[in-house]
């Protein structure tokens, strides 16, 4: 059991409560740290130094992972040379302690945090790399904006279906540059039919970067479809307005996603000088079939230091793809699902890797012959989604073998 003094900190948005306990679990000091008051931070350092002198042992600072709010305190204490450990807020012992106590406030929570660290004999967490933290933030924002983009694409499609349902017969990808340019300038069948033919052909040619003949053929087809659907078009003010709003949102999100991707690329390039292991690990991950630059960067950012996983099974659990356990007495369930305890982004990444490995190239050759053959065999016995899940498992085993 850890016999050093421990400073438990319950973090909130504007202030945090700190409680320092002795090796005998006696409360030595309490302090409210206001995040906009430098004097409170310095007072916390004074208290920690006094405890260090009294017990001839450097206190360990422990706090819960509380969104992004704990990062201010964690960074401050780490930069001042103190050991900081971030614990999981769903810790079982901490939850059980809180259930026994009828008083729920920040001061008591800070005490339970310190006692949880003591009772679980937790190890001191090493501060994560600032570069990897930055990479994780960028990658997560990339996927968040990608999800938003998908949502707005669906909304845009729903409006286009009402205004001109057969528009997709001309431009199957409604969110392509050519399609968006036409919808932005000529949102309704009436607008298309009354447009200057040469101007509309020019827009199609310039945005698609194809020949005049191809643009002319697309124009003729577009005119035919506009005439065909004109009697059924719901071209009211609401639909036209929302069409333009959704187009603007799609274009803005695409631009911002591109900016984030450029920042990820720039960060990895910069790290090759200061932390070459980051770019080396990304290159190693890209050697696995189905893993590209962004996927490799995301995996590395989410996992961080591979050395903290002493066994492959621990890495599997971090992914959240280990089987759950349902056992009581002599009963042992045989229909267990994935635990899904770890990073949902990592599970999402593994699923995309599995999809990439069962695809075929333009010449009809499989991207990954082994997994493709495995998928085809599973499809004969199981539904496609179940077969993809089996490939999902195979993909993660392939991944683990590279680092086991």
From TrEMBL:
GO molecular function: DNA binding; transposase activity
An annotated GO BP: DNA transposition
Lineage of source species: Bacteria, Bacillati, Bacillota, Bacillota incertae sedis, Caldicellulosiruptorales
Pfam families reported in the protein's UniProt record: DEDD_Tnp_IS110 (PF01548), Transposase_20 (PF02371)
The protein, known as: Transposase IS116/IS110/IS902 family protein
NCBIfam families (alphabetical): transpos_IS110
InterPro entries with a match to the protein in the record: Transp_IS110-like_N (IPR002525), Transpos_IS110 (IPR047650), Transposase_20 (IPR003346)
Domain of life from the UniProt record: Bacteria
UniProt domain Transposase IS116/IS110/IS902 C-terminal: residue ranges: 283-363
UniProt domain Transposase IS110-like N-terminal: residue ranges: 7-164
């Amino acid at each position: 059991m850890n016999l050093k003094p421990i400073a438990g900190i319950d973090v909130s948005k504007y202030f945090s409560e700190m409680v320092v306990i002795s090796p005998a679990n006696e409360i030595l000091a309490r302090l409210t740290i206001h995040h906009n008051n430098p004097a409170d931070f310095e007072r916390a350092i004074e208290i920690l130094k006094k405890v260090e002198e009294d017990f001839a042992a450097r206190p360990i600072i422990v706090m819960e992972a509380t969104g992004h709010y704990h990062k201010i305190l964690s960074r401050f204490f780490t930069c001042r040379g103190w050991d900081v450990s971030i614990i999981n807020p769903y810790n079982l012992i901490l939850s059980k302690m809180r259930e026994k106590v009828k008083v729920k406030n920040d001061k008591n929570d800070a005490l339970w945090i310190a006692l949880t660290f003591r009772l679980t004999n937790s190890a001191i967490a090493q501060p994560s790399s600032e570069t990897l933290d930055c990479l994780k933030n960028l990658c997560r924002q990339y996927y968040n904006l990608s999800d938003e983009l998908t949502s707005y694409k669906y909304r845009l499609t729903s409006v286009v279906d009402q205004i001109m349902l057969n528009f997709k017969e001309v431009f199957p990808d409604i969110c392509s540059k050519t399609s968006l340019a036409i919808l932005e300038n000529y949102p309704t069948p009436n607008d298309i039919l009354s447009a200057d033919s040469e101007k509309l052909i020019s827009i199609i040619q310039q945005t698609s970067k194809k020949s005049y003949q191809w643009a002319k053929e697309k124009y003729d087809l577009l005119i035919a479809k506009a005439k065909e659907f004109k009697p059924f078009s719901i071209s009211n003010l609401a639909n036209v307005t929302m069409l333009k709003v959704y187009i603007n949102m799609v274009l803005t999100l695409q631009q911002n996603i591109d900016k984030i991707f450029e920042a990820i690329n720039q960060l990895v390039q910069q790290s090759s000088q200061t932390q070459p292991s980051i770019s080396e690990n990304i290159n190693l991950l890209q050697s696995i079939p189905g893993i590209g630059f962004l996927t490799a960067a995301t995996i590395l950012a989410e996992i961080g230091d591979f050395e903290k996983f002493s066994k492959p099974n621990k890495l599997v659990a971090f992914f959240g793809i280990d089987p759950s356990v349902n056992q009581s007495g002599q009963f042992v369930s045989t229909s267990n699902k994935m635990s899904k305890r770890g990073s949902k982004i990592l599970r999402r990444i593994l699923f995309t890797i599995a999809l990439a490995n069962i695809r075929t190239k333009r010449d009809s050759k499989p991207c990954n012959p082994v997994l493709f053959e495995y998928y085809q065999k599973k499809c004969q016995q199981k539904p496609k989604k179940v077969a993809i899940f089996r490939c999902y498992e195979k993909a993660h085993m392939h991944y683990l073998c590279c680092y086991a």
